[in-house]
Amino acid sequence: MSTSWPGDSLSGSAPPGPATFAARAGRKPWLTLPALTSSLLGIGGLIVLLLLWWLGTDVLASSQGFIRQFSPTTAIPELVTMLGQPDLLVHVLVSLRRVLIGLAFALLIGVPVGLAVGSYNRLNTATSPAFQFLRMISPLSWMPIAVMVFGVGDQPIYFMLAFAAVWPILLNTAEGVRRLQPSWLSLADSLAATRWETLWYVILPGVLGHVLTGLRLAVGIVWIVLVPCEMLGVSAGLGYFILDTRDRLAYSELMATVLMIGILGFLLDAGARMLYQAVTRSRTA
Amino acid sequence: MTALAQTISPASDRQVAVLEAAGVVLHYPGQLKPVVEAFDFELDAGETVSVLGPSGVGKSSLLRVLGGLQEPTDGTVTMNGKPLRGVPPRVSIAFQDASLLPWLSLEKNVAFGLNFKHQPHLTQEESKVRVDVAIREVGLTHARRYFPAQLSGGMAQRAALARCLARKPEILLLDEPFGALDEVTRTEMQHLLLKVVRDFHTAAILITHDIDEALLVSDRILLLGGTPARVIGEWRIDLPTPREDYIAELGAIRVEILSRLRGATLRRIN
User: Fold this and answer.
1) Where is the ABC transporter domain (chain B) (predicted)?
2) Of the candidates B88, B102, B113, which has its C-beta nearest A21's C-beta?
3) Which end of chain B is less congested by CB atoms within 10 angstroms, N or C?
């Protein structure tokens, strides 16, 4: 797909083209720093972030100020307390379930459509402008329509999350199909493979790396879209809880929830990345 | 397909042609001239034939037709008297690119396709034995759990050859499989091919542009030339293998092939 879209830089971690498998084996540009050094640097960056947060709230803000209530010294102990109680955990589980269901729908739609779009050039040309058009509509703008169509509750949220997540999966799957090595398909032909066998044993494993790259991008998007989605018309989930804490004037809980959203998003992304690495490791070892 | 597999006779009778092409024409739509024209050919059981010719002459296209990957525009290709429809189970094809699937270990690559619907049914035990034998034959037992990214070019081609052998081929079709290898590895692979053909009693067609390779491994050499490609020369080599001791005899044939090639080229230039 010639048009670029937000997050495209991440697809740099897509599986290397067939010709570069061997080249990659010897040289791993993203690992030029030793693993220990790079994780120490990463932790250092997080500590600086924490310090800035602390400076902006506890140190520089006036001691009677409103801002004080959002400081790390109140938010972090508050988060620890909240983790010991069922309330926050219930909202977390509700949110995670929505994310998983939204992603599942996005995969169910995005992978088959991506396979078709990647396989047929004309279909790609015909659908590309339409997809670019739809992709640029914020999923949240569907909210009123989604509620009218699906009713109040979880369904409109699933719809919006799937709508947000389907594009990176679809486009990456299509790209994966285009990058399949023609000789793999010749091989399948030479083994008298049926269409299904070719699909199942060659095409699907061949695009898996791209699908997972798309999934990782989708996880990031879904997690960002989730919170505002949950601020409308539902009574559970992290987005709802943010508004709930505001209404209860429980500002330390609010900040602790923001922190929690960040931590969970970080972990989700790390999980998606590990999944990608676990699947592709053997191929480039 | 299974019916075809059952009618295959043992390869003991060396005079029976296993593969026969008659009047084969291959003409891609939209191209001015056919790629191949008037190609008649018989491959005897257990025979190794090299198809030699300059790059781009249509050797690979011809091999695709002979293997059933591509239907000829005209003419017929038959295996044991039956017309080809798709690639028959006992025809194995190796490509210039080893075409190993990077997500499968070497042994899984070798086993790849054995359980496909159009292949003769094998029990798990039978498949395992086939794979073991094939991997041992090409000398990769130590590397069976490696992934393709960990294999050298020569090892990858050995693995591709093992994948062909696991299907107990009656005919082995090799499309310049050693073309991308260095000289030393290439020589090793040529000796391996001779051994494999002997051990598995298989017939083989080797596409190559390397005259010496053709001279060292084949019972018969076909020289393709011209546009559309035709057979412009044929040599039978009745020398035992390995042939490194017969340089003089092979040298004579080499000169003949070269002069025939030059003649064809000059005709084309004039």
Assistant:
1) 19-251
2) B102
3) C
Range of the domain at B60: 17-84+208-269
The gap from C-alpha B135 to its chain's centroid, in whole angstroms, comes to 19
Give the nearest partner residue to B150 out of A183, A201, A285, using CB atoms.
Answer: A285
Question: Count of CB contacts below 8 A, A vs B?
Answer: 74
The domains of chain A are located at 83-284
- Closest-approach residue (CA) in chain A for B86: A192
Question: How does residue B227 score in pLDDT terms, banded at 50, 70 and 90?
Answer: confident
- Topology given in CATH for the domain delimited by A83-284: MetI-like fold (1.10.3720)
Q: Where are the beta strands (DSSP E) in B97-242?
A: 171-175, 203-208, 220-225, 230-236
Q: Is A208 on the interface with B (CB under 8 A)?
A: yes
| Token duo for residue A189 | 């032909």
Considering only CB atoms, which chain B residues are within 8 Å of A190? 67, 69, 87, 92-93, 95
Tokens of A285: 């070892």
Q: Does B158 fall in a domain?
A: no
Nearest to A148 by CA among A232, A36, A225: A232
Digit-coded pLDDT (tens) for A212-222: 999 999 999 99
Interface predicted TM-score of the whole assembly (ipTM), two decimals: 0.84
- Tell me the pLDDT tens digit for each residue of A3-60: 333 333 334 344 444 444 444 444 555 556 778 888 899 999 999 999 999 998 888 8
**Residue B150 resides in a domain:** no
Q: Do B99 and A189 touch (CB under 8 A)?
A: no
d(CA B221, CA B217): 10
User: Cβ A191–B69 below 8 Å, yes or no?
Assistant: no
Please state, in angstroms and rounded to a whole number, the distance separating the CA atoms of residues A166 and A103: 8
DSSP per residue over A157-200, as a string?
HHHHHHHHHHHHHHHHHHHHHHTS-HHHHHHHHHTT--HHHHII
Question: For position B219, which CATH number holds?
Answer: 3.40.50.300
Q: Is A86 left (phi over 0), alpha (psi -120 to 50) or beta?
A: alpha
Q: Is residue B261 part of a domain?
A: yes
Residue B114 lies in a domain: no
Q: Which helix (H) or strand (E) holds A145?
A: helix A143-150
